[in-house]
User: Fold these one by one.
Assistant:
Number 1:
Amino acid sequence: MALFAAAPAFAFDPFVVKDIRVEGIQRTEAGTVFSYLPVKVGDTFNEAQAAEAIRALFATGFFRDVKIEVENQVLVVLVDERPAIAQIDFVGIKEFDKDALKKSLREVGLAESRIFDRALLDRAEQELKRQYLSRGKYSATITTTVTPLERNRVSINFNVDEGDVARIRQISIVGAKVFDEDDLLARFQLTTPGWLTWYTKNDQYSRQKLSADLENLRSYYLDRGYLDFNIDSTQVSITPDKKDIYITVNITEGERYTVTGVRFTGDLILPESEYLGLTTVKPGDTFSRERLTETTKAITDRLGNEGYAFANVNAAPEVDKDKREVSFTVFVDPGRRVYVRRINVGGNTKTRDEVVRRELRQMEGAWYDAAAINRSRTRVDRLGFFDEVNVETPPVPGTTDQVDVNMTVKERATGNLMLGAGFSSSEKVVLSASISQQNLFGSGNAMTLGLNTSSSSRTYALSFTNPYYTVDGVSLGWDLYHRTYDPSESYSVSPYKTVSTGAGLRLGYPIGEDDNINFGLTVDRTKITTYEESPEQYKGFCIDYGCSSDDGIGNVTVNSLTASAGWARDSRDSYLYPRQGVYQRIHGEVAVPPGKLRYTKLNYQYQHWFPLGRDYALMLNGEAGWAKGYGGKEVPFYKNFYAGGIGSVRGFEQSTLGPKDSEGDALGGTRKLIGNAEFFFPMPGAGTDRSFRISAFVDAGYVWGEDQKLKFGDLRYSTGLAFAWSSPIGPLKFSLGMPIKKDSGDDIQRFQFQLGSIF
């Protein structure tokens, strides 16, 4: 329209341009206008060039109107500039962050100092309305005001009346006869207002959530045999005041079907018996889409283990509606067998490639093996160096029998330089200074140099571990330490004090994919101090080993040589945030000559993780300990087992369960039994961040002395909630425990927490 209106303005005969003049510009440089003109001084100018010039200047978006005039062979370009945006304000907005809104507007071109465009403003207004609708605020109104300012500028103001959130008042399922309507609605994410919906906002209508809920409803029926189930219609209505929403779902349940048979056809490269072994849908069973999907997936994965990365497995039903029976023919198309051309590792800016590649079980140039690739991902994740490990297997362009394996990792901070103070419910004030690196220079080696001091202990320690001392995975490590320990300062433990200096050497050897055995040798020199308040057992130990006084109140120094051996199996899917798998560990140590001590000590731990759905997990943990002296000697009292507190039985004070002296202080014991059941669920609002974990737990445990009989009736029980966070400064643990079974002499501590690691 502008071109047609401007046509009479440039009805002229071609002429030679003597000069070019631009009028009407305020902010735009004249050179910018000249750059869009298809003519220069001295050129012959005609009507076609004039039309082209107008189109080019309009296309810049800088001008509301453009005209071209001719005065005595002088080309005059008349422009009317669009105003610039001086400021953008929001009034009445509480649901969204104003800075975030300005950032989103900037991405579409509406921002301060930019050219004002009414079309962009209208689009921004509609998008803001859509955002309010997605939040359930259907009565929200938006009034946009554009105020002209001096120097050809404008101010844009979004005045919003957010109104009240529309709540879902009722969800009805019409046609449900086989199952109770409340049971079906329990599968829905959308719900009517409840005590937690203020946070989850599941009482606010969302088309996406409703679609997911309808699919869950469909799956619920199909997994229980209702093959003819159908969702006939869905109505969503809102009251005139736009405050209440009613949802009605009309369904037809149909009849339940029974499976009469499953047969396989196609290119069966494996024995049919093996396919049948992977089948979870059996003749005579009620039809279940879930089990049918599990069957096809299991067959696809099995073929993937043989190198058929693009296997296609489909189940075709044969339905007898009269008899309510269904049989399935599973078509197997393995496709071409493929091999891995190249394995690419990305995202490891600090960690060396070899650290990742030595964990891989899929080799380049070998046949594709889905199980080996999944195993590789798990092993890399268990290193603890990465927050995320993702694997993709794209086909190689131009080929039909090759794939690449692309492993992408997201590194996490594995080093820690800490100078500061912490606090725990058991250790009180904890002062620490440490330098630790679990991935030293990206080599995968671990080293820690630290000082840790609290009211009960002081530790100077230096340790180093090379997990791949040999290419076969043999690990080598060593430790140097100096520890001062006085538990009576913090715990309700019988008073004594130890000062230990020692060095140890560790060797680990893998005997399987998940199994390792380890050996160790430690030389230790410990000075023990007993007091007048110390139990007779402690004083007797001091006398037996040459106490500085005849009454057992004083000092004694004991040298020891301890040999250790252990076995561990770890099939957990993640070192930091496990959800499934098993961890087992047996560790034994024995004090041998030429040291003075004579004792043996054995520990066993079994931990099993069960995934429940996509975001939940159940952990069962059991620990048992046993110690015994030999050669006429007793187990040193400072080597006893203790129970209670974070890490064993929460809700009871740290290390207080078991035998006690006459003052009511814990003595520890030579036998220990601990059991934990913990249900983990995601932190509300944390999204996909796995570093936050909340759990509900039940703990049980106790320790027994040398002269006591082990009785399960002595076990103490507690339950409660716990929170853990792998924070940048170290792990944080909190627990709120309530003892279920306790004794009158037990020390109760319901709230317990620990900030940072304790050496």
Number 2:
Amino acid sequence: MVHLLSFAALASAAFVSVTATPTRRAMAVAEQRTVPITFASAGKPAADTTLDLRIALKQKDMEGLEKALFDVSTPSSSLYGQHLSLEQVAAFAAPTEQSVNAVTQWLQENGVADITPSGPFNDWISFSVSASKADELFDTNFEDFVHIESGERFVRTLQYSIPQDLVQHIDLVHPTTTFVKPLVQRPVMSVPVPGTANVTERALGAPSSCNSVVTPACLQSLYGIPTTRATQSSNKLGVSGFIDQFAQTADLRTFLANLRPDLSSTTTFTVQSVDGGVNTQSARQAGIEANLDIQYTVGVATGVPTIFITVGDNNADGVNGFIDIINALNAESAPPQVLTTSYGFDEPDLGSALATRVCNAYMTLGARGVSILFASGDGGVSGGQSQSCTTFIPAFPGGCPFHTSVGATQGVNEVAADFSSGGFSNVFARPSYQSGAVTTYLNALGNTNSGKFNPSGRAFPDIAAQGVNVEIVDGGSAGLVAGTSCSSPIFASVVSLINDRLIAAGKPVLGFLNPFLYANPQAFFDITSGSNPGCNTNGFPARAGWDPVTGLGTPNFAAMLTAAGL
């Protein structure tokens, strides 16, 4: 059992009378920004509008946790594979008693009563106040903002302050300056068209039909993925679901009957709910993204128990449940060993403080032996989605160093898909595990795109997989989809199959992947053609070795097994 601070006891200890007017504390600006061009101010909310806010408390020792993460994730380390327990992670990630006391006392002094701990380590304080009270507390001006394209409205502010004497205890207040665009369904479905593209076949001998329609059989041929069933019931593969995208069991049955006839058509997945998420079953409720993600995990990671984690609309974390799903998994004693997500944002949407906090949540989960994979995005160098820009826009969480970013390829000869998002973070520094590979690329790149990206930032993606003309079944009909949304579940399936064999051999699972990946570039098919245009440029070119379009390349299952010591 994790021993965390008792907020009830602390609140009682910190209680002071709120009948008297508290002394105004000196304030310090915590964050500020301008209105993003995709949003417009819509005036002041009513003074009594209720705002659900969260304060992210400073965590005890995230530098220590980062060292521990790399110790257990770097193959050359004597601690490799000795993943941390929930209790061990909590010792790093929980706030200090001093921080809890100080922030709780300040809130109570100002008449805030409903103070609730949240997060797996009680590292957030949640509370609700009126808009007028929030203005007073944070020396700010909350406003209504509207997302111009969708019409969705948010209450946010462009600047807020916190007491100077609490700066050492508070990472951020949220949601305040975060302006995330509504999540959208990435892949677009089209009807399969007969015929094949004129593309050269690759050495592993996938049939030329795979140039036009990608199926599980194509992936098995291209990457050497086995069809034999996994054997370890403790090995779990998690699939994130958002924005009311529902994975259909009927569509999965049809998919398996058509494209994996060697598997029982009754093979299915389990469902886990976060924030009241559901998984409604009907052809009308079919979700292209959800069906894609489930069909290319259940249908590729043969026999691996798969969990569809559906995040509902009942979230107040300001980022569509991205915080809540990681908090939910972090609170579990045995979370799935692999998690794939095919959604994301642009890095500037979150701001550096929130991006860092979410990224650190991935660190806590990775330290426990969870491989976290995200689709890199579909906007080339212009971000998660194609958009106008003058300088390159990093996707999020692409720039986070504690997850694995997956780009896209196409064709049997595997060239870079032109939409594959990649580039360099403006928030996160380049981690040591990729320093050599990225330096080599930048030296070869020379002055190309100079001034349009941050060459010292964390570079992404890390690896890639097929992402064009991928066949799925949706609403009872077969069709083709494209996007890095295809690539992440495919690579996640490969990792899960390797984990199955590791567990069977009595070895630890791969866990946080990146140090292992960059230490073993020979375990991937290097992609040397294509680019990811955007921002009125040709983007970055793919080339020998790592590149910011396809990363280290696509999986070679046999070589990855060897690298894993199997």
Number 3:
Amino acid sequence: MAAVTEEKGTISIHTENIFPIIKKFLYSDHEIFLRELVSNAVDATQKLKKLAALGEFNGELGDLTIEVSFDKDKKTITVSDKGLGMTGEEIKKYINQIAFSGAAEFVEKFKDKTDAKDIIGKFGLGFYSAFMVADNVEIISRSFKSAEDEAARWICDGSTEFQLSAATKAERGTDIILHVNADSEEFLDEWKLKGILDKYCKFLPVEIKFGTKSENEEDGVDEAGKPKYKTVTTDRIINNPSPLWVKSPSDLKDEDYLAFYKELYPFSEDPLFWIHLNVDYPFNLTGVLYFPKVKNDFEMQKNKIQLYSRQVFITDEVKDVVPDFLMMLHGVLDSPDIPLNVSRSYLQSDANVKKISAHITKKVADKLSELYKKDRADFEKKWDDINIFVKYGIISDEKFYDRAKDFTLLKNVDKQYFTFDEYKEKVSATQTDKDGNVIYVYASDAGKQDSFIQAAKAKAYDVLLLDGVLDNHFINTLEQKLEKVQVKRVDSETADKLIDKDEKLESVLSDTEQETVKGVFEKAINSKAMTVAVESLSPQDLPVVITMSEFMRRMKDMAKLGGGGGYAFMGNMPDNYNVSVNANHPIIQKILKAETDDQKARLAKQAYDLALLSQNMLTGADLTNFIRRSVDMVS
């Protein structure tokens, strides 16, 4: 075997090898071509403005509007700017040398003289996205440095061959002309192009014209004194070059934020409040995040935050930048420091992304804390809409829990609100068990569990309302975080057993009578899913109470929410319930005194069906039979 000789060299990438990759695979979404070409036009305009500010361009800037146009008959799409322009040599340098970024060179050249953050381009590849939709691409450009009318024309058919020649162009700037191929004629449509511009270019920092629009304008009054109107045709400017997030918060009013929200989400209700982000160290981040009124459909709320890089729309998939528990927020984030892949189509996670995510978490927690301290009554009014954000954050983010624990509220069935500390102080005296654990009792459905709630209240217990989509997870977090606290659903035990205080009522039944009653109920119920026990309860309690243990019910609820692991196993197990027969209730004496077994079974079945009804578990034929039996008993 021949020895390998140590050698250093340069890997050579040939244009003919990389061009098809750029042309066909770099941009998975063909509509991106318009974003890239318009972004390049914005770049050229911003560069000229920078040079003018530095005194390196002394001419008149004039109208800098970028224009996008199309000709269906000629099958062309044209993007025109009045920016920097290029000489023939610059076209050869910037266009023929793939991946040589003119923006990168510009930033490097002027980095010590000016803030060049407004220059969009980064990779120098965006221009080539034009070949996804065009058979031929033509450039006609006149540099701001050129003599009058002196311009250059470049044309390429998507191969490695190009033609460069002199041209005549009256104005400074660049026209990119796409001769659209047969497979892409869908883009030769006004509303298709407008849709792409609205999506990607809506907030670019230079005005972009796309055709014209007609509007009615008042034109005096007629003989009857009624206003007259005339139709006026004006340029259709498709973007807002100065969106709200680039402005200083001190210059904005509430109505400005609400108006911008409507601009982003025209058919949505007004948001509850918002956070204006404006960070320039250790990373650049601007934006506005809105807290919407959350609807029941958890997933429908997501993907409403738009990510921009220097006002160029990138994506609404921001899960790497925004913590998952805040994905239901709405609004805009803009950062040049978020790393993008070469096509600017998705994010690449790195340390900056993690820092930005942590900063957003902190700002949200700070805003919520500020609202709580400023006006607690108003915060309580908002709680039903915002608690899902807070609870999700508490469950999933340790640092957020540390910041949020002082303003997170617990709401009881009487619509009273308490902080964690306030609630523990409220219930400790009456709801501490024999082992020193404070028991928080809660309802997940106040309507269906009302009989259990009333039984708990009769013992002076307070009942929380935890009926949200995340509350099963939130309950687990409460038990983990709060010392000596256990949480039980109000229907997981009889009221006497919810909080074990080692207090036992005496039974009025003998052991023999208890065995008789148990046998009657087991025969009447006839279900392996029901475990019958005769217990000594208060005569004021129901004759029969059906419960599922807190552990079993919680595991099943977690399985429904996709808890995974052991939860999934529990979710597949059959339901098992405890049937507590109240030995001290008067109806039990009636059952014992009934003359026949059929009468005993009939009374037991009625009491059992009442318990099912209280748990919303009586349906179908069983419900029909219960109603008929009830009618017979009162007839």
Number 4:
Amino acid sequence: MPLSAEVFTALFVAIGACSTSSLAADVFSNSFLVRFKREMEPREAQDIAQRHGFVNMGQVLGSKSEYHFINHAIPIARTKRSIPHMRKLKVDPLIHTAIQQPGFVRVKRGYKPLKVENLVKNIEPHEDPTDPYFPFQWYLKNTGQNGGKSKLDLNVEAAWAQGVTGKNVTTAIMDDGVDYMHPDLKFNYNSKASYDFSSNDPYPYPRYTDDWFNSHGTRCAGEVAAARDNGVCGVGVAYDSKIAGIRMLDQPYMTDLIEANSMGHEPNLIDIYSASWGPTDDGKTVDGPRNSTMRAIVRGVNEGRNGLGNIYVWASGDGGEDDDCNCDGYAASMWTVSINSAINDGQNAHYDESCSSTLASTFSNGAKDPNTGVATTDLYGKCTTTHSGTSAAAPEAAGVFALALEANPKLTWRDIQHLSVLTSKRNSLFDAKGRFQWTMNGVGLEFNHLFGFGVLDAGAMVALAKRWKTVPPRYHCEAGAVTEMKKIPSQKSLIMKITTNACSGSNTEVRYLEHVQAVITLNATRRGDIELFLTSPMGTRSMILSRRQNDDDSRDGFSKWPFMTTHTWGEYPQGTWLLEAKFNSQMPQSGFVKEWTLMLHGTKEPPYTELPVLDPHSKLAIVKKAHESRSKM
């Protein structure tokens, strides 16, 4: 069920106000969002733009009343608004409002070197690719090379052996450009779906720098769709799929309109959008998508792929244990698939962030040696073995999803998330520091605060996708709210309760959970010392905010911030939910929870009733049995 405008506004408009703490000082770009009093044809908008000294860059998200104007007489980034230019636009009788776009920081999630259910039975043997770098692609086939754990990989050969290689699926790499002339990419490049939003032309080629800083997107593209058996570099996870280049990251400051146009670009030509970037991973930033960008994502999941919904894959972040990816409004969104990483022996990488919104994991660098990273394409026809970070993890997931979409082109964006939950494996993944153990939720699904529901299994996902039945409609239930201000004690926990019937008897009833959000407003003398926990009626306890030692904010706090958990997936939401807030600090602190709203997202009908169970020990069998027992109560 598409999200209503009212629910969207209530949940996400606040992010723009809360996220401004990401910049030390305000920065304003030369871009303007212009809203007209009526629908305008592009020619009319162009004439008005020229009359006032602007350039019309086109409609915003296909709207005939909203346009993107740029004024090249204004610096790309300045510290003050340009009042004269705004006044020129606002006095025009046809213009309702003109908003100069603030600039904000977005960073590539690349590892900086350290100063150091198997559903596929009896598949036919599969011949290895002949590409020279394939032996280094341990994340595709882990034989124990470089000290890795044998069979700890994406199990892609089990998908390829089923005849699935990503055909007729396009993944857009939203990044700093793609070297579409690279011999390992050029035949899998979808030029019709590509665009350069940094230079405003159809050619998203990376800008040259001496340090190859803009190799990021090309490396991500190779992970998805590098060609097979051509004697060049390695092979992509979905080597017969297409990649599109969306260049939007290579500029001093990002704007809401550039992000929105990138995420809304050609939604019926693009199936998957892969993003290996986000707000600064410094452990103190709280930031997320602004209004237009969130509208683009919501439109993508509701209308993209001709109504099936685009899949947005996000790197969970490289801030390490000092950060929490629930403070990243992109990775923590229920409309994106947040992917964390592991190294080749099953440990989390030292830069991996943890949070309850992570759905699953793939792989980044191998062990602690940068030379055992992800082998993929590089700029100017070259190859690399050192790509890493959660930047490397997200495109691997996009490749696995491309395989699933070839196996079943009718999969919705939600089907992809359900398949990820049901087919991801614990395998050998473990927290190197022993902080986060594998835990079972109320319907028997195993999860980990670092790795989500485990490492993606391409073979299992493709096999289940082939016989998948689309899940029932999704509903959004505002399950209750606590609006009375509550003080967080300095030395013990504040416990708050919401008892809910999960909108029973209404047209938004939720009986089987997907995502759960605790939308919270709070302030504290030191924001980074606060920890938040959400416990479901079935007893699953999610840490929705961990301590962030670098976050010393005492002013902004959180304003209607949607902390999200996937850990209660498949559970029954009726009953009492507990929110625990406490300080993790050696020094006395004080704070207040001003408001807490519980949002439940899921289905009224059980989601897997039409799926036959082939393996009685599979996650699918476990959850179906739990749901069947519940329906008899």
